[in-house]
Structures are given as C-alpha cells and as structure tokens.
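User: Hi! I'm working on a homework problem where we have to compare a predicted structure to a textbook description. Could you give me the structure for the chain below?
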Amino acid sequence: MTTPPALVVERRHPVPDAVLTWEPSERRVRGKKGETFVVDSRRPVLVWEPGHPVPLYAFPRDDVRTDLLRPAAAPGTGAHSGSTLFYDLLVDGVTEPNAAWTFPVAELAGHIAFEWFGRAGVGPDHWYEEEEEIFVHPRDPYVRVDALRSSRQVQIEIGGTLVADTRSPVLLFETRLPVRYYIPREDVRLDLFTPTALRTGCPYKGTAEYWSLTDADSDAPANVAWSYPDPTLAVRAVKDLIAFYNEAVDIVVDGERLGRPATGFTRRPAG
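Assistant: Happy to help. Predicted structure tokens:
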C-alpha cells in the first residue's frame, strides 16, 4: 500500500492574514507579573497581526498600570506591525525590555498591548479571562476544538513498524488543523518509546508531555508523540491518551492510508 503525496492544509480563516485586524471582546482580562496585576480590563481588544496565526490583547490605557511602564531604552522597532512606541515593564525592581507597545493605527490609539511571558520570555506571566487562567496566548474566537470518541480503527506506523492499533480512539478536531488521533495507552507500543523532557502549553488543551522513538537509527523526529495528563475541561476525553504527528508518521484509518499534511507543525516534532 503506497502513501499518498503530502497534503497542503489550506483552511480559511475569517480574519485576513496580511493586514492588522482587531475586534472588541467582552471578557474581563487581567495580566499579572509575580503578585502584581499589570492590567485589569473589561474592554480588551483582540488583535491579529499580519503573519501571526494567533491573536493577542490590547487594552485601553486607563486599564493598564502605566506607572509600571517606562519608555523603552532600546525600542524593538519593527517587532509589531510597524510599532515605534515601546515600553519597558518595571515590577519589583526588575526591568523587562519591550514588554509593551502601542499600534500605529488611529483606531487603536490609547491602547497598549503586552507580550506574554510564556511566548516571549517577558511580560505578565499569568493571564486570566474572567476567573479562568489562560496560557500561551489568547484563545481565538474563530477556533473550535472538539474531542469525540470514535469506533474507527486507527493504526500508526513509523518506518514500516506498527506502533499503535486501536478501535477506540478519540478524534480531536481543531479548526484549520488536521484531525489528531488520540489512542489509549494500552493500544500503543510504549516499549518502543522513551519519555522526553519537552513540555509545551496550549490554551485550548493544556500542557503536553512527549515521547521519542527509542531506536536511534529511526528517521522519526524527536518528540513525535504526546499526551495531555491534565487537559482542559473542554477536551477531557483525551486525558492520558497518546497522539502522533500526522506530519511525521503513517496513519491508517479503517484501512485507508492517510497522506501526510504539511502544516506549521511539520518541523515541530523535533522540539
């Protein structure tokens, strides 16, 4: 059975990719650095920057602790959609450069955006929508994630070796991404894999742990399999199940061998 050619995933997003786009949100959003709340807003604005697949928040200046901001000593000009006005964040005697900025468009005048520590290494390190903590980046209102139990037979092959075979997978459907097939551990040849130290966070699913194929001669990339030991409530059905990158393994569903999609995760498994 031959493998179909790679598929290029081109799924449309209602937000244009090539222009700065924004829309108001009605969520209360707070950002905290250490024990200090830097921003607390009931009037945040979601902003999509050109070339960035996920949004960020900008906040009315009145909702920001501007007393903690200083004009940037070395402005990160060009880092955010032509922004030229950057701020350093000073909290508890520690200065974080270019942690905040303004956008050079009239409609966002008077708004300040922040980096997220989990992505950029600077900025508030805890974020909340209402009373729920969120991670990595704001959740996109145009993204839906559904974890559905299934009776399909799903088989995973790596280099011709069958490493997983199940008839009770959970299929995770996430907007603009290939279906991810989550497999019960008892149906995975975990004896062929070694846990790694990699951990990644997702605002929709939680924090993932990873495995690599133990065989050093394998062409499989590192961190090719992952699991969520404590997923968010919305995808609780994938708890402790194991998924593999469609982009790096061969997947057979009900006897049909799937093509390997080309996505932003194609080179991600190496971590």
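For your comparison, note the following. The CA atoms of residues 77 and 84 lie 5 Å apart. The longest helix spans residues 117-120. Good luck with the assignment!
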